[in-house]
Structures are given as structure tokens and as C-alpha cells.
Amino acid sequence: MAGCENRLENLNGAGSNGAVCKTRHRRMTIGLLGFQTTIAHAVQLKGIGVHSGNPVSMTFQPAEAGTGILFQRLHDNGSVTELKAVSANVGNTDLCTVLGRSLSQSVATIEHVMAAIYAMGLDNLIVEVDGPEVPIMDGSSAPFIEAIESVGIKNLGVKRRYIRVTKPVRIDSGASWAEFRPYDGTRFEVDIDFDTPLIGRQSWKGDLTAETFKNELSRARTFGFMRDVERLWAAGYALGSSLENSVVISDDNSVINMEGLRYAKDEFVRHKTLDAVGDLALAGAQFIGCYRSYRGGHKVNANALKALLSDPSAYEIVEAPAARNQVRAREFVAVNMPEFAPWSA
After folding, report:
1. What residues contact residue 262 under an 8 Å CB cut-off, 6+ apart?
2. Secondary structure letter of residue 125 according to DSSP
3. Which of 75, 162, 173, 343 has the most CB atoms at less than 10 Å from its CB?
4. Please, are residues 135 and 46 in contact by the beta-carbon 8 Å criterion?
5. At how many degrees (to 10) do helices 142-151 and 111-119 cross?
6. How far apart are CA 220 and CA 259, in angstroms?
7. For residue 253, with 0-12 CB atoms within 10 Å meaning exposed, 13-18 middle and 19 or more buried, which class applies?
8. Do the Cβ atoms of 96 and 302 come closer than 8 Å?
9. Domain spans of the chain, in order of start
């Protein structure tokens, strides 16, 4: 098929001293990190929840190998709700991705944070949040990337395992569809199609590396339409949305924000790709394969991931054959670990 061919590039890795190691980008060689990582030091961000409209503080804390990404919601009474960032814990995908199934025991709007965590190659992290959702910041993943880079990434010296797609898996949902395909790397091919001239049909296709994500996707902001505002407010959504954290499209089909668009005309599909990266990060491990979607969203992404993980014949668990930082995707070897299911709650 066109697009998901065996074209490879290098990923960024992390050195044993905790600093980010920048590797060369070359076609036909992909460097996937062979070891698990975390951040070198804690870092805090403050903002508001895009749906609740309330102030929220979020802190990234280093974690040991094997922890995974663990959200901790801190309650006023001193109690803590722990939610592993995995597919099995997704409770809602309406307008955002939510971990947990009850309002008081959940964390919402995690996709932008998870996209940054995944793209930067973090395996283990504790995310402390003192409210029902993470801060929206500027509506993109860029502030989270900056926070991670400000403290550095630490190599934990323990082998990282990947989920490698071994056969196509596809789901259809009305006019929308999504599929995974085998690929020697990590690739996204996302198409959107909106019935508005400003957006229309847009595509983004590319191999996902830390640098590609930072340069081509991370600054793309969430977007919405003025015509939907009153309906969303009435339903309790978008109470914290503003021109500081969202691209707003007017009734006359123009961008209201004085800044305009950050990526010419296709910031919209870039943000949808960012969302897909964050949603698929709930596999609980990095994946080797190609993800394609048409008119997708949080629900389609979540269902596609569940379809893949529910079919053991469609993937295999692999790890580096030797103890080294950078490993080509095709060099990873399958490991017989039926108990390894990082996407489980």
C-alpha cells in the first residue's frame, strides 16, 4: 500500500546520564530506544481545565522502571485516586479522552499530555493532578514538551518492550475508519474531512520521532466552532475554552484568533494527529507499526486500539536483542511473555 512502506528514520533517545541524546535523522535507519526512561527531576505546570474552567496544577514526577504512566488525582480531603494510563481505564471519549468511569474518580483531557509523553519516549512517569482534568495550557502539547525538556530524560537501564503490529487490523464507524498495519517504525497517516471551506479535507503523513512531533505537530491547538459554544456550555463542556487555548472558527468561516494559524492552513489535521498519538499512547507501551485514520477522533482511536489489543495474532511483544540505546526496528526480537499486558488496568 502507498504510505506505510518500509521507510525508516532515527528517533531521539536518552543517554545514561539523563540528558536527551540527539541522533541523526537518516532514511533507512530507525533508532528505537532499547531502554526504559523517566524524567530526571520533577516539574510542575499550572493552568485551567478547558472543560471545567477551574484552576489546576499538574506535576510530573520521576518513576521507577515498570511503573508505566500513572495518573494520581489529588483530592481536597487528602485522598488519592490512582489511574494507570491504559486503554482498559478509558471511561469516556466525548470531546476528550477520560481515564476513570466516575466524575469524582477520573482525570479528563489527557490526550495532549499523553502525546507529549509518548513522543518524548517516556515509559515511566507519575502525573499528579489536583483537579478533574489536566491543564489545557495553550491547547497544544508544546508546553508539556518544554516541561519535559527542562528537566531532562533519564535512562533507567532496563529493557523496553514494544508492541509490534504483525497484521492489518481495521475498524469502521459510519463514514469514519481506522487501521493498524505492519511497518518498520512508528508512522501516522491521518485524514480529516470537515464540511466547512476553511478546513475541508486535510492530510498529515509521517514517521513519528521526537523531532518530527516537536516541529510538525506539538504546537497544533485544539479547535472549535462559534456555532457550538452555547450547546457545549449548556452540556458543561468548554467552560475554560478561550482564544488563548483554542482555535475558534467564526460563523463566517474565518479564524477569530489574532494569532491566526500556526501551521498555515493545516493546523487542524496536525492537531487531530496529535490527538491520535495521545490516544494510542494508552497501549501502555510504544508501538511499531503504521496507524491510519479517516475522519477519526477520540472514540475511533480508542476503538481501533482496543481492536488491535484484543487480537493477539495481530501483534507481538518485542525487545532489543542487546543492551544498547539505539536499535533498528527490524532488529527487535519477539519475547514469549503472555503475562506482559501493559494496557491492562
Report:
1. 219, 220, 221
2. E
3. 162
4. yes
5. 40
6. 13
7. exposed
8. no
9. 13-334
Q: What distance in Å separates the CA atoms of residue 213 and residue 110, rounded to the nearest whole number?
A: 17
CATH of domain 13-334: 3.30.1700.10
Rg of the chain over CA atoms, in angstroms? 19
* Residue 8: per-residue pLDDT: 29
| CA distance linking residue 169 with residue 181, whole number of Å | 7
Distance CA 33, CA 54 (A): 38
Q: At what angle do helices 298-309 and 267-280 cross, to 10 degrees?
A: 40
% of the chain residues with pLDDT over 90: 77
Q: How far is CA 340 from CA 44, 74, 155, 160, 335, in A?
A: 31, 29, 21, 12, 10
Residues whose CB falls within 8 Å of the CB of residue 138, separated by 6 or more in sequence, listed in order:
221, 244, 245
Q: Which three cell numbers stand for residue 284?
A: 501502555
The string of pLDDT tens digits covering residues 130-187 is: 999 999 999 999 999 999 999 999 999 999 999 999 999 999 999 999 999 999 999 9
How large is the average pLDDT for residues 297-302?
98
Cβ atoms of 38 and 121 within 8 Å: the answer is no
User: Which candidate, 53, 63, 3, places its Cα nearest to that of 187?
Assistant: 3
Average pLDDT estimate for 199-213? 97
Name the nearest CA neighbour of 19 among 328, 325, 332, 329. 325
Tens digits of residue pLDDT in 17-58: 333 333 333 333 345 888 999 999 999 999 999 989 999 999
C-alpha cell at 123: 515509559
DSSP assignment of 5-56? SS---PPPEE-TTSSEEP---BTTB--EE-EEEEESS-EEEEEE-TTT--EE
202 or 321: whose pLDDT is higher? 202
271 catalytic residue (yes or no): no
- Do the strands 326-327 and 32-33 form a parallel or antiparallel pair, or are they unpaired? antiparallel
